[in-house]
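fyi for ur records
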Amino acid sequence: MPKQRLILVSVLLFILSLMSVGGLAAQDAGALIVASDVQDVITLDPARAYESTNLTVFHAVYETLINVPADDLTALEPGLAESWEISDDGLVYTFHLKDGVTFNSGSPLTAEDVRFSWMRLKNIKGNPSFYADAISSIEVVDDLTLQVTLSAPTPAFLSIVTVPAMSVTEAAVVQANGGTDAEDADVTDTATEWLDTNSAGTGPFTLTSWVPNTEVVMVRNDNYWGGAAALSGVTLRQVNDSTTALQQLERGDIDIADNIEKDLAEQVSANSDLVLIEGQSLNLSYLAMTPNETLGGPLGTQAVRQAIAYAIDYSGIMDGLLLGYADRPTAMLPIGIQGSDPSTRYERDLDQSRTLLEEADLSSGFDVTLSMGSGGICGIPSETIGAKLQADLAEVGINVTVDIQQSSNFLTAYRAQELPMVLSTWTPDYLDATMWSDYFSYPDVGPAFRIMLDIPEIADLAAQAAVETDQAARTELYNQYQQAHKEAAVFVPICQNRILYATSSAVENFVFHPVYFMDFYAMSKAS
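which gave:
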């Protein structure tokens, strides 16, 4: 090969190698690179996605009618809607959209786009479709007004509207790529493949690629109706452990290390070129044990589940592994949410654990498999928390086999009701107590379905609290709900995480939010 051609080929290979690391956005000095765990992403279709990473992506590329501000989680503020009214009977919601909002295609936002997006979500019947369950009908009054009629009064509906799954997509673009809002959308809609690597939203960024288990790339929407973002793009890059992420941050290869392990906090704080940021999340990591004897064998007995709950060394996890960067509620209502009272939570009591096992004729113990994803919980690596729980339960004679799977495979098996005992995390989409009680209570919905929970007392209390408009009465119902869950010991909270981020000192205006975690529109990078 002539020398000139050899040089040319070498240069081209070098350029291609740069492009392959972190996407094209990573080569722009104004773009942000975040080391994260993106293995949980199964799809980036707003009507189908139901994981954690997609919440961050959707907040960047799509928008909802109403928002919850990061500095006041009890407030609701206008998003794509400038105002709204509710009928006296609580059944009809009228939304007035902001004028002048455009999609990334340049087309204007209309009420028909909202109607299409919400009915597509409802009719696809995917994992997040239950957010639209309360909707009976939607009428487009004019280009900027729509009326939504509910099937029953739903006090949490405005909070539900803030859910990323309720984001507005451009109807014409989604339809052009196989989308439909028809009643048979669950079998006829084919837009997901396109939406996995493209977006049709009004947000400040546009999705350009998703490589499963590797990265998600977004670029700035220069025509964003709210004004162009300071960042030229954002890449979420898969990094498998916090130590590697921190090393990349120290070298300047990335800008943010997401959800770093707690034992690295001092190292970050000691580096003047880095900034440690703590965000109090509402994420709950929990141990789930099926009450179904066919699936779980001994776990089908309540006393056995309670024995396991009493055997866990919570202090060793909270203070030892998490160095105090976490909290723990009594049941699946995080601290800070209506009805949550951590004063009655399980504490370690090995004598009580052994007594309960003896009552269940299992004083000699039994074998059980604990399954979890590869991403860990509360910033603790899966291997570490798995070994900790394995050692804790061994003290009362329970032999635990730890099964760590790739996160997407774990979620698939969990959703298929194949796993009797799991360690997982619940990330809220909105901040009403129903975000937890709706999904940890009924046998046909959410984690309750996955673990085969079917306990009428829990379901009845959840149903009563969901429609109660008197706040004092609602709080009391949730207190009772919490205690019923504690007694059942199907879901045992392990930690309510405080998420730690390590950022380059060049990153400015980092905003943490307990639902979508990072607000890239607010961020910038110093030169």
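The mean pLDDT is 92. thats all i got for now
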